[in-house]
Every structure is written in C-alpha cells, then in structure tokens.
Amino acid sequence: MISRNLRPLLLLLAAPIAFFATFFVAPIAVVALASFATDAGQFTWSHYLRILADQYHWEVILATFRIGIVTTLACIVIGYPLAWYMVRIIRLKTWRRICVILLIVPLFTSNIVRSFGWMVLLGRNGLVNDMLVSTGIVERPMRFLGTETGIIIGLTYILLPFIVLAVGNVLAQLDTSLEHASCDLGASAPSTFWHITLPLSLPGLIAGAIMVFALAVSAYVTPALLSGGKVTVLSILIFQQYSSVFDFHYGGALSMVLLILTLILVAMAGRIRGKHLDGVA
Amino acid sequence: MARLIIRLIAWAGLLYMVLPLVVIVGTSLTAGSVLTFPPEGLSWRWYGIMLDDRSYLSAYATSTVLALAATVVAVILAVPATLAIARYDFPGKATITATLMSPLVLPNIVIGAALLQYGSAFGLTRNFAALLVGHTIIIMPFILRSVLAMMTPGQRALEEASMDLGANAFTTFRLVILPLIRPGLVTGAIFAFISSWINVELSIFHTTAQLDTIPVKLFNYIQYTIDPTIAAVAALTIIVAAVAIVLLDLTIGLDVLSSPEDSQ
C-alpha cells in the first residue's frame, strides 16, 4: 500500500521540497548559524548579548514596538467601523464592490508608491499641512516626515486593508439569527452589539490585529522613506548590517530576533483563527 | 447616531485609502516642474520625459520579465505540491505545508538578506537568477493557498473514474484536475505576479545599476530627489494594479464581503 502510494508522492513533492530546502531553509539556517559564530567560526552568544547590552538597540526595539502597537490600534479604530459599514450598512451592491476595489488597489501597489504619496501629502507644504493651517487647527505647519507619527500614518494606510478584510469576512459569515434573537428579547442595538456581535467577531479582529502588528514591526520600506533617516526601526538596522556595515554575524542575530518574533505572532494568530473555525464548524 | 459615527469613520477611512493614489496620479499630470498637489495645469510632459529615459523602460521590462518568470516557476513547483498535500497523507505533511506557506508571513527583508549571505558562496547574488529564486520563494504561497482552496476530497472520485477509464496520470491532470482548479490557479497567479512586481524588500539586496526593478529604482531615486517624473513612473504602476484588479474581478468577482443572505 505504502509503496504504491510513495512513488507518485515523491514525483509530486521532490521538486518543490528540493527548491525550498536549497533556496529558503538553507539560507535561513546559514543566517542562524552565522548569528552564533565568531569570525573564526567559534560558537558565541556575543552577538545576542550585544543586542541586549546596548541601550541604543533597546531604543530601536522600543520604537519598533511603539510604532507597531499604535499602528495596530489605529487600524482597529478605523478598520472595524469601515468593515461594519461595508458589510452591514451598504445596501447597494455596486457601491460595496467599489469599496472593495478601493481597498484592494492600494494592496496591489508597491509600498514605495504608497509611501511616496504620503511623502507628498505630509510635507511642509503638503495638502495635510495646508488643510491644518487653513482651518486654524495649527498655526504653523507640523513636521510629519522624519517623525514616528509620519511612519504610523504611512503604515496604518498600508495595513488597514488587512484588518478590514479580516473583520469584514467574519461579519459577512456571521449568523445573524443570534442578533435577531437578542433584539427580539428586548436588548437594545448597542447592547446586542457589545454582548453578541463584538464577541463573535473578536477572533477575526484579533487575528487580523496580530497580522497587522507582525507586518508593522517587520516593515522596511515605509519607515525607511518616511523616517528621512531620523527614526530607526529594527528592519532598518538589519538592512544597514547587510548593505553598509557588512557584519553578517550581528545582522544575523538581529534577523533571528525579528524572525522569531514574527513566528510567535503568526502562530498566535493562527491558533486564534483555528479555534474560531472549530467553533463555527 | 451610532450609525452616523460609523458612516463618518468609514467615509474618512475610504478617503484615506484613495488620497495618496489620487495625489500621485494628480501630481504626475502637472505642467509645472515641482511636485505639487493640486497640480499646476495639466500635461503629459512628465510621461514623455519618463518614456525618453531608457533606464525606466528597462526597469519596467526587468520587473515584468522577472514577475512572469517567477510566476511560471512558482506555478510549476506549487501545483504538484498542492496535489500531494490535498490527495495524500504522509509523515511531516503539516511541517512541509507550513514551511511552503511561511514566506507569506516572514519578513522579506530577512529572506533577502539570508539569500544574499548564502548565495555569495557560489555567485547567486546580484543577478537575475538570484532575483528569480527569491521571488519564486516569496510568491509560491499565493498559488499554493488559492489552488488548495479549490481542491476538495470529492474530486478524488472523478480522478479515479478517469484512471479507471484508461486515462494516464497526465491526461487525468489535464482533462479532470486542471479545469477544476483553474479559477484558483488564475487568482493565485495574479496575486503572485503582483507580489513580485511590487517587491522591494527582497529585490533590494540583488539589484544592480544595470539590473534594476521598477520599485527598487523608485526607492533609490526617491531617497535623493523627488520630481514629477517619479510621480509619472509611480502613477503607471498604479494603472498596472488597477488592470490586474479588473482581471481579478472578471475571473472571480470581487464581491468578497457580501453576507450569504444578501446574495439571494
């Protein structure tokens, strides 16, 4: 039985597995090994200790997390109502379709192009400052480029579609009979939302939020363009090690930190989504 | 009241989504020589300047050839893998599936750096082969995911019927399996093509002055100077994205957020 099954299986899997082993698993293994090695090839913890010991790195990691957290919160605050609007409020199919397209066109456009749009918008004489000054909200143009605020605005823009689609999918699949029952039993609309709809949509929201956070802390292009060299995040630090400092051992240790952090977050998101799917089935 | 607030936030959110793209297309049409929005007058002049600069055209060509080649290689590798995953049980299946899917979520900058460090031992850096290999790795999950979604256990009976009637494995694949998975294959391939076409984080380690993809060229250029030519180049990539989405809408339909009861 096994031998009959084994031959086609090997034929199907040999090429993809060989390709991934050679060009994906092996390179990451090389980075992992390099992060534990001295120039002479001896085992060492020193590259990791260097990350822990240096105050500058703590500040970089802290800034990375701060940007990630604020971006995630901003995505939730804008994304949940937007998803709700698209699934529950819009009645016209064409308009809903247009909204989905408006969300997806940016996803199909390079981070460079999207960040570039914000560089134009957020500049000293950009549209945003023009509006803020002319409406009297601020007296003088604000500085966005080169600040964490600017990076957060850009990242929120780039990651918002992920959360809208994650929440929107859950809301669209949701069995509305529970909500009808709640209303029939005399609960007010807000009470139904807080006690029924929100808890039911929470798994989608949390899984989406974790994905957004993981993508925000590992983003490179948007922080690099909107920071103007004034704010450093983990991915910028990694890029410097490989492109200008040429310290592959230390760069490897930084890469491993980012990689493992991402893996933990993704595994968490997967568990939450998995549990949720079990609950539905 | 709550409904009004939701509407206001949603409209603000939608405005937020379109604003940067509108600004880029707008500034690219300016008749003036500085990057401003709203544009000063309308003209195609910066598109003309872009078309006169051979380096932009060659970057567009590189990006397109790379994305097409990577998509083809990824399809060739991914389709057999999805057949194995969907139709067989074997030890290590979960690990293999997770590994094949993982480039979707791992930081591309780490994958790019790893490939640079690894490839430098045998010349697989800063050339088309390195770009092709890296892009294939990062776009394969899109094809795996959408093809796997089209495969259901029930199809097994159709395949067995085909084999029983004397068709060989290849004929069965061509006449039975391929038509069943075609929508997923097309969707996955479009997503894969676009992810390659817009990639910066991986490409940036392997491009050179002669071998530049359009996003990397834009990235390097924007850090030093900003002029309306850049806006014209960027606007063109937005148009490519819009075309890809129209294609997607025609193949699968983008009505992804309708609740089941709406579609009665």
Please characterize this protein's 3D structure.
With 281 residues, chain A is an all-alpha fold. Chain A folds into two domains: 1-35, no CATH class; 48-280, MetI-like (MetI-like fold), CATH 1.10.3720.10. In chain A, 81% of the residues lie in helices and 0% in strands. Chain A contains twelve helices and no strands. Chain B is an all-alpha fold and 264 residues long. Chain B has a domain at 58-225: MetI-like fold (Orthogonal Bundle), CATH 1.10.3720. Chain B is 70% helix and 0% strand. Chain B has ten helices and no strands. The longest helix of chain B has 34 residues, at 54-87. The relative contact order of chain B is 0.13. The chains are: A mainly alpha (281), B mainly alpha (264). Chains A and B meet through helix 1, helix 3, helix 4, helix 5 and helix 7 of A and helix 1, helix 3, helix 4, helix 5 and helix 6 of B.
- Give a quick account of the main beta sheet of chain A: strands, pairing sense, barrel closure: none
Uncertain stretches of 5 or more adjacent residues of chain A: 277-281
The tally of beta strands of chain A, per DSSP, is 0
The termini of chain A sit apart by 32 Å
Sequence of secondary-structure elements of chain B: HHHHHHHHHH
- Average predicted confidence as pLDDT of chain A: 86
- Oligomer state equals heterodimer
Instruction: Write the CATH homologous superfamily of the largest domain in chain A.
Output: MetI-like
CATH architecture of the domain at 58-225 in chain B: Orthogonal Bundle
Number of discrete domains of chain A: 2
